Amino acid sequence: MIHVNVSRDLTQNIESFMMKGHAEFDEPGKDLVCAAASGIVFSMLNAIEMMLDVKFALVQKEGGGYLHVTVPSGLGEAQANKVQLLLEGLITSLKALAFQYGQYIQVHDQTTRRWTE
């Protein structure tokens, strides 16, 4: 199963997301859930990079099945808002995929909890 974990700050902005696992809907090369999830994520990340000139911190593991993306800090307000809008579209698309194929992909969307004294 593919697990997507979305981390948000207290203002609900996406700080990072991680996608790990394999859908196992079908054999490698024929797995439409894996292809859809990968296509959604990499298409949107490429679009953000090309249209907004934003480079994400990416961590991938050899052999596939793991991607961690961190939104860079220090973006201007207008650019950060556009990035967030496009990332919300990415997460919404993954949630729609999970709605249809929930036994193969799950999306966990959470707010970062910070303790203050």
Can you give a write-up of this model?
It is a single chain. The protein has a single domain (2-111), classed as Alpha-Beta Plaits (2-Layer Sandwich). It has a 5-stranded mixed beta sheet with strand order 3-4-2-1-5, covered by helices on one side. The protein has 117 residues and is an alpha+beta fold. It has helices at residues 32-52, 77-100; strands at 2-8, 14-20, 57-60, 66-70, 105-111. The radius of gyration is 15 Å and the shape is globular. A hairpin with a 5-residue loop joins β3 and β4 (66-70). The mean pLDDT is 91.
**Which band does the percent of strand residues land in?**
25-35%
What is the helix fraction of residues, given as a range?
Answer: 25-40%
CATH architecture: 2-Layer Sandwich
Quaternary structure state of the chains depicted:
single chain
What is the CATH class name?
Alpha Beta
Count of β-strands: 5
> What global shape is seen?
globular
How would a textbook summarize the main sheet?
A: 5 strands, mixed
**Topology pattern, helix = H, strand = E:** EEHEEHE
Q: Which radius of gyration do the C-alpha atoms yield?
A: 15 Å
